[in-house]
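Supplementary Note 2. Why include the ligand at all?

Several targets in our set were suspected to adopt different conformations when bound, so apo predictions alone were not considered sufficient. For every target with a known small-molecule partner we therefore ran a joint prediction. The input for adenosine-5'-triphosphate is given below.
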Amino acid sequence: MSSSSAIQAVRGMNDVLPDEIAYWQHIETIWRRLMTQYAYQEIRFPLVEAASLFQRSVGETSDIVEKETYTFADRNGDLLTLRPEGTAVCVRALVQHSVLQQQPVQRLWYMGPMFRHERPQKGRYRQFHQLGLEAFGMHGAAIEAEILLLTTRLWQELGLSALFKLQINSLGTPGTRAAYRAALVAYFTQHHAQLDEDSQRRLDKNPLRILDSKNPAMTAVLQNVPQMTDYLDEVARAQLNQLCAYLDKAGIAYEINSRLVRGLDYYTGLVFEWVTEHLGAQATVCGGGRYDNLVAELGGPASEAVGFSIGMERLILLLQAQQNLSSPVPDVYLLNVGELAEQNALKLAEDLRLALPDLSLLVHCGGGGFKSQFKKADKSGAKIALILGDDEAKQTTVTVKYLREEREQVTVPQYEMVEFFKKELGLRIED
Ligand code: ATP
Ligand code: MG
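The joint prediction is reproduced in token form.
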């Protein structure tokens, strides 16, 4: 097949090749450890959901539902959507299985691909990945502080703390939001001529979303909008102050950004973003907030909830600029030449892997002479080549050759190999 006719991946959907995988695995390992430390449990849910789920939760007038979802009818004519985010799906799963009735307090996390039909660019793709968490059944600022402390720890462990700034805001209660909305509508109506097309359309349907506009032409009119923080009631203000007190005590710097509204309809109270100056327009790496009404709206029991999600690709772009992680290489490459040696090699390798669970051992397959096998051993990056020829196989020995050091090769009885690697590579023996 000529290269011009070879099938390509769908635009905006990326392969992650082995030379990049170390960054993904590094973040995933740290994330899993952190989630265990903070006693969050993993939840997994489908990639495909009923389209109505996102219309009811994320919102009909949100960017996501209005223009970004992959929605299609399946062969039965059911309208389905590739999930564009995790929160609504998580809540759907908990409601469906009555999880919160049985245990109202839940700390959950998820990881996986999301789909949005956006214009692909650096840090913005059509299939991307999120790490996210959701905590249910807890009111007050303590749980809000916990998830921000935990994110701070994640940045520290990735060596990225210096790149992030935390912005927070409160969207208040439904009552104060209505009053603020009225003030916004009055202000934008007065400045109608200065609104771009999107914003004019949103003025009736969802005026808060106008604050989220990234159009530079809107900067001037957004400069003097009424401040959300002036409209908060006592309860919302007290909770925001309490969160600030927690953050101050923990030494976490933040900025109150009263124009921060987030792109999803379900937020109530706290909203926040971790932003960076190093990714151009794709500035937000982590966004979240409180959504106390969503569980009931999707048919579950009244339940407080707070959560966030992190864009993996954006985090990886930052990590790649900061440090060089190379993909793992095998410790040992086992060469085998000759019929007897070939038969012996797989068995020897099984014994070694059983006894040394941390050993990464590549067995040469596919034949060839010593010369070609050595070339491959060298290319593999392995530190040590184990040579099994017919002589060794007959004498049940193996020859050790150091590929990265100037050292004499040695021949060792096969039954001593476990001890040899324990010493040589500092590996633990399975007991
Ligand atoms: P943006 O304003 O950049 O479009 P958003 O508000 O739509 O982001 P959320 O829905 O809050 O994003 O998703 C949480 C995080 O997921 C974002 O902060 C970002 O890191 C990541 N993310 C969102 N959309 C994409 C995308 N198309 N490609 C890559 N990452 C994304
Ligand atoms: Mg978006």
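The chain has a mean pLDDT of 94. The two ends are 52 Å apart (CA to CA). Comparable summaries for the other entries are listed in the accompanying table.
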